[in-house]
Amino acid sequence: MSAPRAAGEAVDNPRRPTLTQVAELAGVSLKTASRALNDEPNVAEATGARVRQAADLLGYRLNGIARELRRGATSALVGLVSGDLANPFYSAVASGIERELRQHGLQLVTANTDEDAELERALVEAFLERRVRALLVVPSGDRHEYLAIEGNRGVPFVFLDRPPDGLEADAVLIDNAGGARAAGEHLLSHGHRRIALVADLARMAPQRGRLDGFVQAMDAAGNDQWRPYLRTDVHDVHRAEETVRELLTRDPPPTALFTTNNRLTTGALRALRGHPAAPALIGFDDFDLADVIGTTVVAHDPVAMGREAARLAHRRISGFGGPAQTVIIPTEVVARGSGERAPA
Amino acid sequence: MSAPRAAGEAVDNPRRPTLTQVAELAGVSLKTASRALNDEPNVAEATGARVRQAADLLGYRLNGIARELRRGATSALVGLVSGDLANPFYSAVASGIERELRQHGLQLVTANTDEDAELERALVEAFLERRVRALLVVPSGDRHEYLAIEGNRGVPFVFLDRPPDGLEADAVLIDNAGGARAAGEHLLSHGHRRIALVADLARMAPQRGRLDGFVQAMDAAGNDQWRPYLRTDVHDVHRAEETVRELLTRDPPPTALFTTNNRLTTGALRALRGHPAAPALIGFDDFDLADVIGTTVVAHDPVAMGREAARLAHRRISGFGGPAQTVIIPTEVVARGSGERAPA
Fold this sequence. Notes:
2 copies of one chain form a homodimer. Chain A has about 350 residues and is of the alpha/beta class. The first copy, chain A, folds into 3 domains: about 20-60, 434 Repressor (Amino-terminal Domain) (Orthogonal Bundle); about 75-175 and about 300-330, Response regulator (Rossmann fold); about 175-300, Rossmann fold. In chain A, about 40% of the residues lie in helices and about 15% in strands. A 6-stranded parallel sheet of chain A has the order 2-1-3-4-5-11, with helices on both faces. In chain A, α1 crosses α3, α5 crosses α12 (about 300-315) and α9 (about 235-250) packs across α10 (about 260-270). The longest helix of chain A has 16 residues, at about 205-220. Chain A is elongated and about 85 Å long. Mean pLDDT of chain A is about 85; it is low at about 1-15. At the A-B interface, α2, α4, α5, β2 and α6 of A face α2, α4, α5, β2 and α6 of B. Chains A, B: Keywords: DNA-binding, Transcription, Transcription regulation. Chains A, B: GO terms for molecular function: DNA-binding transcription factor activity; transcription cis-regulatory region binding.
């Protein structure tokens, strides 16, 4: 997937005084200023006082997380192990985690498994060895491998997007069935019966939930005209585009499409570009520019998902010993035009 | 920025045998199977042989990086410190780094500074303490703070997107001036003179490069009709949308827009939605669905950027001691319609 970039994103706050300014005002080197403010040895008492006075004058504050990290004795790090760096879903989740952790003086460190269950386990162990305070995991596959980990050293685990299997742990999941049911009902209410379902790997728990929810909506309406248009195990943008092209050649063609994640929606949009009588389309997952394109989606909040996971982790770090909790992130259909087209 | 998600992204390869299957075939617990394959103590010789035989039969291979990580003595980790997790540019760069590192048995670990120079320095130190083999940094601001780091313990640094300042280090940068010059020339060649420039914070090096390149193109053509339409320090999607709306109310309005990063392009697209006589538009940075929307962009390859940075880091890890190298990632104008509209 090609990815956008925004340059000039990472900047320091211009109003925040820097260590360089403190050092200059105190007439010492940066290294000395840093040592003095971090209470490190080998700084003369008078020098230390001068540096602290300069810092006070400028309103310079040592960053709390920075100081914690520098102490090193108790780690301020929380680990996130997830599947795929190039997937913006994970970065949105991670940014939610990060923001929440920062409020508690904790810093997120992430590593990706590239969909490899064995590597996932090794990364979990590597993080545990490096003294993280908690571990958040988007499991990549065979969760049972976790049982082979030599004890978690009392470090709490939180699972994201997929339920823990064979492990008592906190989890944050999306209301996959509810969201897909709502999408199905939305298309039915606009008069569609021949609704194509384009889904990712059916053995993934979130995908199974979405399939189930969609079928529930069809069954409740007594509609089985969607069945010839079911396509599962479509795993990337390119195959989604091909699959939708193939569906459009059927006789009769489907009058509506439901794509069960953002990549599949992207593929569908490519297939439908310039189509004279495009079928209705609803995609699971909101995405950048869906408003500009006018794509109706089943939206949820991945940032909130990360925030909830961080909250659960922090509660455990703070000593909470109660039973494992599962938080469900709600979904909603956001109508933007493509899902409201009538059958051709 | 709202972020798309693709569920079912992270899956293990169905054809790849799992440790669970090895343990089942050998008739031992997962923990024992793991210990045997990792040559850990406390496994009876006969048991170890049975596990290895089962692994051979199933074609089970311990992941190389997983094994390295587990050994722990020499770390297989490489650190990336960058600005903002929610920015897909960073995840694309990181995925390029990750893929290249994997080929050398190295694992990427990332942390984000949230645009805080002091935190950036602490994270660099925290990674050094945790024995990373190399450090890749997208500097967030006042680079001089680096000089206060207590020696880099021989760990090589590679800078991404922004040149190192006050430090001899390898770097991977984008051809910002060249790309922006090409965008300016493209709009000029389609007859535009009143070209609005919507730019991010002018003090960021990549933004300065883009401003310079655009001005070079205008100067070379003897055109100064763009000057009333210069807008800098536009730092988010919302302000970009407002800025473009304001530009369109000018008399006369600009006939073309050049937005200097993806977020600003998103804002412009929102402002232009449904506009009866939209000006031409070129955005710096390619983005998902630009092909569907028909947006002309100055494209470059953030994944290649990450790959080059990882290559430079690996060369240093392997003992290369030559002078610091800077790799420039090229850009190209990708015409998709919006940049080829004639002046109204």
